[in-house]
Specification:
The chain has about 150 residues and is mainly alpha-helical. It has helices spanning about 1-10, 10-20, 30-45, 65-75, 80-90, 100-115, 125-135, 145-149.
Length: about 150
């Protein structure tokens, strides 16, 4: 019931449902049970269903990897940590969603490439794109690399 209380207080969707049920004279306990039932169906679809959640009230779909990149960019996370988190998130995404997840990342990459010559770019974003394309977490130089250059 604590989950239901928090959802009604903090989530717009469940707050709106509660606002509809309240004037109908529904018992607050009944409303909380309905909220918990809806929440468990959503949670089951995400966790046990191993699929990306699609809410009927949403027009489109948010892209998990794109949102994760935005989060790390806003919080100035180290590129290694960001890349590790991206790899961990990719393991959780069903394989049939990879193409959909790649669309906003490709657009982000294209924007980075087109702006590269016109304006300075934060090195972290550029390195992150390069490292992600190479599929490595970090690049370590060896003494042979330094001798060869």
């Amino acid at each position: 019931m604590m989950i239901a209380d928090n959802l009604v207080k903090c989530n717009h969707h469940f707050r709106a449902l509660n606002a509809v049920w309240k004037p109908q004279g529904k018992d607050p306990r009944w409303s909380r049970v309905k909220v918990v039932c809806r929440f468990t169906r959503i949670q089951y679809q995400i966790v046990a269903g191993q699929q990306v959640f699609r809410h009927p009230g949403q027009c489109g779909r948010d892209y998990i990897l794109d949102k994760l990149l935005d989060f790390h960019r806003q919080h100035a996370t180290a590129p290694e940590k960001t890349l590790n988190d991206l790899h961990a998130a990719m393991k959780q995404i069903p394989a049939d969603e990879y193409c959909n997840e790649a669309v906003p990342l490709q657009a982000r990459y294209q924007r980075t490439q087109s702006r590269r010559r016109r304006a300075p770019q934060p090195i972290g974003e550029l390195l992150l794109v390069v490292l992600a394309r190479l599929g490595v977490g970090t690049v370590k130089s060896t003494s042979e690399d330094r001798d060869a250059s």
